[in-house]
Structure formats: structure tokens, C-alpha cells
Amino acid sequence: MHGTGSYLELLLILLCLSYKVTGQQQLDYYVGAVVEFSPNYFRGDALATLRNNTKSYVEFIKQAKQQNADIVVFPEDGLTSIQVPVISKMDSWSTIVPAVEDEYVPCTGNWTGISETLKNISCAAKDNSIYVLINIAEKERCNSKNQCFLDEAIYHNTNVAFDRTGKIIARYRKVNLYMEPRFRPTKIPEIVTFDTDFGVKFGTFICFDILFWIPSLNMTRAAGVTNFLYPTAWFSEAPFLTAIQTQFGWSYAEDVNLLAAGYNNPTSGSTGSGIYLGRDGIANATFSSYSKHRLLVSRIPKKELKNPRPEILQEHASNLTKYTLQITGNTVDGVYILHDNITLFKHIPVEPLMTQTSLCHDGFCCHFDIRADTAKSSINYHAVVYNGIRPYGLEVEAGIRVCAVIQCSDEAGISCVTVSRSDTVFNELKITTTIDDYEQVLVMPNTLNASMLPFEEWKYTHRLGTNGTNLTLELSQSTKDLVTFGLYIRNFDRDLWIPKSTKIVPNVTGAGSLPDPSIINVSFFSMFLIFSLFIF
């Protein structure tokens, strides 16, 4: 009888576990958490820096679990800070990261080269039974495959995901690096996804990756992934690319859930985290004017996987207008904001009696319907249009198209980059354009108010017409304190670091046929890293 009783007890336990997992999968939501994090940095002391920040991470993992989170995400560079040393001194700041197929649990394993940080985060995931994603400096030993020649190791800017047992279930090495001379991309750009026990498949990428086809759109459009984990150390740029404005714009454009964890250092321009639900709006977001940590937790409705479909980036001429970014900026409510250079944009001032106007630049035309009460405001507004190439940082020139109404500090529109409170009331604002390459570009609705947050009182539509896809963005109610309202379109095939002969044909797994990685050495709004080069 004792043996039979033990068998029945075991059977009941298995049935309970099966019911628990099935119940999780039947829920139509999961609970996600992101951490906006301001790391401590002990100059030249990797051990103290990593230990201090790891200790904070472990506490946030506990807090996330206490709020019933299924998964928690931490920012880019949050463990090391952005002030990592030159490559010859990177060893103590980095760790070996086992491959997923090794099924390695750092908490209980004994491999050499695994840092205490990786072990402690693994243990925290295991002890709290929660999925965790971190960003860390990864050390890869030289071998015949990675071709690092005389170096003892090469280093990657890497995301690592742990499951509820502390096992490594994903490792993604950043593709789009810029001003990160310590790190290298992989020979073949990585497309990384992983599955969870609550029935959601996640993709992951890092910071500047969000503005490129590889890897982000390989996952949304080729593999149909609809949930993403996104560590970032963004440096906000007005009027089109501030942190939350960009994060929400991308989530909305692809209609996917995005969990974005941001590095926090407002005086250098880094802040902005959120949980975004695609066309369903913003669940939670923070843009902080002072250094702090913050945990955001939200219920996230599950989105069904989209039907995978292969895409081809087609060739187009790059004979377009180019401009140089003016590396200037100002402090807005305690956050340093970089300024875009719009001097080559076609623009026209918004006048009190203006109702309709059309503007074209290099064959790209936009129509504006505007009814605004400007009588009580000293803030100027201009309608602007641009079709051409702009720099992202110092190494990449990228194709963009813009239709927008933006704030200006002067009537002539020479300086059209301000973020200020405004009494101008836009009773009607509608922007329309037509493009013939909708499937090959990224169209992000682009809005910003004086609080440095995107606003949501608008509607966006795209419809196939006789001459292409008709795009419309219009206000759904009267609005004031408007800073930016428009469409920001990325033309990937015009990026100058992609050879004209290159075509990208992803397969249903999101891997695809990818361009030569030797030319993929770009990143972004870790723009503040420019300044760190003068320190280290």
C-alpha cells in the first residue's frame, strides 16, 4: 500500500504541475517588468562596479517577482556603466557567456571564465522563478571561427536571457555598433528568439538596432514575432528621435509589444523606458529628469504570432540630399537633448489663417491640413518635408523621409528644434502622403509633447491606392503643447553602409541571407559615448 500511495501522490503532483502550466498558457496576458537603471561606477574598479550593480539587479528581480512579473528586463550597459575601459583592460569587465545549446545554469555550474555577475543573476532568476534578460559585456575566446587573430579575446555587447531555473536560454550579440570600439559584431548577424512557459515567444535586440532592418524587422516581418525585449542606452535627439517617442513609434509601426529598459543618466541625455502595446498604446513609461532607478510593471495582452512572410530589400539609387548632424543640444527639464539639423528640409511657417498646403522634397510630397490658433503663443511652428540621407553618429548615413509639423525658435525656421510649452492650439492637423515601397520601409508615427512624451490623441491609417500606399496621420482632438507631429520613415535600402548589390532575403526563422558583417559596424544613441572617448 505504501508503494501505491507514493505512486498516487506523484501522479497528483504531476497533474497539478500540468494544470499550472496549462493555466498559464490559457491566460490572455502576461506580466512584464522593465527597469530604468542608473548604475554606479567605481573608476577603474570592475569588481566593485559589477558587484554593486549586480546587487541592485538582484533586488529588482525580487521586487518584480513580488509584483507577479513573469519576466523582467534590464538596460544596456547597466551592469558595467558606459564607462568601460579600453579593449586591453576589458577582461575583468566581461564574462564568458555559454551558448544556448550548452543548457548551462551559471548558478550551479563550475565553468571557468563565468563571472560572479552572471552566476548571481542566474541564481536570482532561479530563486525567484522568473525570466530575466540582462545586457552584459561578453568575452569570446579566439578560435578559427571568429578570426580574432592576435587578440586573446574579442568582446561583444550581449543580451543574456535566463529562464525560471536560471538556465541561459538566449544570447544575442549586438549587430549595429557605433562608438563602441571595444565590441565587435558577429561574423553573421544574429537573429535571436526564445520561448517561455507562459506561451509567448520573445525576440531581443539592443539600442540602435531599432532603426535597422537587421535584426528587428527580420523578426517582426519574416518570423512573425510580436513580443520584444529591448535594453537601450539611448541619447535623445529632438525633434524626431527622443527615447520614448522612438520606442513607441517602432512598437506602433510593427504592432508588437515592446519592453524597453533604459539607461539612466539625464545630464548626459540618457533616460527613457516603457512598456508598449503596439496599436493598443502605451501601458507604462518613464522619462526622468533626475538620476534614479525605477521599476515599471504592467499586464501585457498577448499578441498572436503573425504569419511569417519573406521580404526583399530592393535596390534604390542613393543619389539623394545629404546633411551633417550638428552635434549641439540643450538641457530640457534636466535632460540633455541633442538637436537634429533641419536646415535642408523644405519648410513653411504655420500661419494663423493657414488651412492647406503641400510641400515636396526630392520627389517626396506631403499634404498638410492645418487649423491652429496661434494668437496667444510666442512659439513658432513649421511644416517640414525631407527625403534624403542623414548621419547616425559619425559612421553611418541612413535614408529617411519625414513629413511633420514641429516647433521652431524663430519664424524663419532656421532653428526648428525646440521643446517648450506652447499655447498654440491645433484644432485640426492632418498629414497625408503616398509611398510606393511600403513593404520595404519602416513608417513610424512620430509625436512628442512638451513633457518629452509621445501623445496618443491621433489616428493613423495606411491604404493601398492606385499610385501606392496612402498614409494619413491626423489629430483626433484639439491639442496644445505640441512639439512634433508627423511621419518618420526609414529607407533601409538607401543606407550607405549597405552595398547597392546587397539584397536581404530573410527566411521564416528570421535568419535569412544577410549582408557581409564587415560593413555592419553601426550603433546609435549611445551618442554620449562620444564624450567618453575623451575620458578613457
Written account of the structure:
The chain is an alpha+beta fold and 536 residues long. Helices cover 16% and strands 33% of the residues. The chain has helices at residues 2-26, 46-66, 116-128, 213-222, 243-254, 529-532; strands at 29-36, 71-73, 131-141, 153-162, 168-173, 193-195, 201-204, 227-232, 237-238, 257-262, 273-277, 282-286, 294-301, 321-322, 329-332, 335-339, 346-349, 356-361, 364-373, 380-392, 396-408, 425-435, 442-449, 458-464, 469-475, 482-491. The relative contact order is 0.13.
Sequence-ordered SSE layout with sheet pairings:
Elements: H1 2-26, E1 29-36, H2 46-66, E2 71-73, H3 116-128, E3 131-141, E4 153-162, E5 168-173, E6 193-195, E7 201-204, H4 213-222, E8 227-232, E9 237-238, H5 243-254, E10 257-262, E11 273-277, E12 282-286, E13 294-301, E14 321-322, E15 329-332, E16 335-339, E17 346-349, E18 356-361, E19 364-373, E20 380-392, E21 396-408, E22 425-435, E23 442-449, E24 458-464, E25 469-475, E26 482-491, H6 529-532
Parallel strand pairs: 1-2, 2-3, 7-8, 8-10, 9-16, 14-20
Antiparallel strand pairs: 1-13, 3-4, 4-5, 6-7, 10-11, 11-12, 15-16, 17-20, 18-19, 19-22, 20-21, 21-26, 22-25, 23-26, 24-25
Percent of residues in beta strands:
25-35%
Distance between the termini: 72 Å
Counting DSSP E segments of at least 2 residues, the number of strands comes to: 26
Radius of gyration: 24 Å
The class by helix and strand makeup works out as alpha+beta
In what order do the strands lie side by side in the largest sheet?
Answer: 5-4-3-2-1-13
Specify the biggest β-sheet.
6 strands, mixed
How much helix, percentage-wise, in residues? 10-25%
Please, how many helices? 6
Described by the principal axes of the CA atoms, the overall outline is: globular
Q: In terms of per-residue confidence, which ranges show pLDDT below 50 for 5 or more consecutive residues?
A: 19-24, 311-319, 498-536
Mean pLDDT: 86
